[in-house]
């Protein structure tokens, strides 16, 4: 079980590293002047590759998490309300990941309507999600 838990932690940390950086690329894309096509294309390429890589990291993170929950029974049974809350956080993280893919498609089509300041705030969401997940798993408040 400790191997599965270790791999889960490594893949979650790696997945979230991608979720931290991808919106930062959106900030930079929002700041690119319309005439800077080469800069726009370079950032789009970076974002595409990062999204693909981040998705490949998310899959084993979720698989190992499910293995811990369903296979080893971590968080199952009475007195494990924290796991229900953590599962909500996981669903929100998956939704955020999916939203990043849709947002990237808008940047590719050059249909971004938001400022770089808005994207800076959007970039903080995964920090809050990771904080919530760690507190729920470590502290187990309910």
Write a short abstract of this structure.
The chain is mostly helical.
Q: Which terms summarize this structure?
A:
142 residues; mainly alpha; 5 helices; 81% helix; elongated
Counting DSSP E segments of at least 2 residues, the number of strands comes to 0
How is the biggest beta sheet arranged?
Answer: none
Order of helices and strands: HHHHH
Helix percentage range: over 70%
Q: Could you tell me the strand content as a percent range? A: under 5%
SSE topology:
Layout: H1 2-31, H2 37-71, H3 81-108, H4 116-122, H5 125-139
Give an overview of the whole structure.
The protein is mainly α and about 140 residues long. About 80% of the residues lie in helices and about 0% in strands. The longest helix is centred in the middle third of the chain and has 35 residues. The mean pLDDT is about 95.
């Amino acid at each position: 079980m400790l191997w599965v838990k270790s791999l889960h932690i490594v893949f979650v940390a790696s997945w979230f590293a991608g979720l931290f950086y991808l919106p930062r690329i959106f900030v930079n894309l929002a700041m690119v002047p319309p005439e800077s096509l080469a800069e726009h294309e370079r950032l789009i390429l970076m974002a595409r590759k990062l999204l693909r890589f981040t998705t490949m990291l998310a899959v084993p993170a979720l698989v190992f998490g499910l293995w811990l929950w369903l296979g080893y029974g971590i968080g199952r049974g009475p007195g494990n309300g924290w796991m229900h809350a953590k599962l909500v956080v996981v669903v929100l993280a998956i939704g955020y990941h999916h939203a990043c893919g849709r947002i990237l498609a808008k940047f590719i089509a050059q249909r971004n309507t938001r400022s770089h300041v808005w994207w800076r705030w959007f970039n903080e969401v995964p920090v809050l999600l990771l904080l919530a997940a760690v507190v729920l798993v470590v502290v187990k408040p309910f």
